[in-house]
Amino acid sequence: CSGAMHSLPLFHRIAGARVVVVGEGEMAAAKARLVERAGGIPCPETEAHYARLAFVALEDGHAAQTAALRLKRMGLLVNVADRPELCDFTLPSVLDRDPVLVAVSTGGASAGLAKHLRLRLEAILPQSLGALASGLSAARDRIRARYPDGDTRRRAIDAALQEGGRLDPFEPASAEGVDGWLDRTRADDGAQVVDVTLASDDPEDLTIRQARALGRADTVLHDPQVPETILIRARADAARAPLPAETPASGLTVILRRS
After folding, report:
1. What are the Cα distances from residue 45, in Å, to 15, 23, 32, 96?
2. What pLDDT, in 10s, does the model give residues 191-210?
């Protein structure tokens, strides 16, 4: 279908869990190091009955396929190095700003491309991202107490984290600003409407401001002819309705009209 993803992105917790690594040499060693970095315990195939995941790092294609099929029959999800057609899951290129993880994947199409996209992101995402995430986590109870209603809480957090907001993730000082944000005078959380007349049916023609508004919208009202390729730029949990429709009394509403 239009806009379909090649994979479902997931972050799998493996701390303390066995993960099978089949192979020898640097390729297998690299997989074992990755497992250990995530808190997992690399183990041989003889311990596969304790594991849920497996990495196969064998140069010989036939041997790699045989090992993968054997492990899959045991119920494990398997990644086979350099053989995306045999993989139940693929490994993204990961940017680590603990506890923030940014993963870039091409679905096995080009590990090199994923790597260089990650390197570009490394250059623009500040080291303070992890501290900001930890600060927000530590303040979770205070945030819930300040904004008991879920929709109001989400709008307040969105406003703080947007470009130029009090907790703009691209501003290093934001990592120290969570308490100040919570202590400020309550902002107006009333209704907001952004009316967009589309230049075309191509999502690449959205302006940066329009794309950001879609990404933050609580509700999207749209002409029936607006294509799905544009509508999926909105949050997955945003309410949608074709025009004509009544504008909600609260939250951010984006209205999409065809020119």
Report:
1. 19, 10, 13, 29
2. 678 899 999 999 899 988 88
